[in-house]
Amino acid sequence: MKKMILFIAVSLLVTACGESSGVQPGDTTEEFMVYGNCGMCKKTIESSLSDVDGVSVAEWDVKSEQMTVSFNADKISLDDIKQKIADVGYDSESYRAKDVVYNELHGCCQYDRPE
Asked: Model-level pTM greater than 0.85?
């Protein structure tokens, strides 16, 4: 009986973890480059989308500088997402942050900007 309860508990835990990814049915997932340097950049980039209606997942990888975002395309466009990231100081391949916002980033977050 104890083994059965343990098995059920572990099964529920695995199922719950698998469903916590945040991606909603019908979401579009895209990857694109966002320039940055460090963990502080990661926090700022991801936070720029944390309360945005229609965005279910926003993850930026420090090493690869790749942004992965899952979103409801009926509520927000990929261009709007890239603009929100640029608004907090981070460039992508198609959107450039305003110089004044970039210059306000912490020194370690001031990445080499693309030309």
From this structure: no
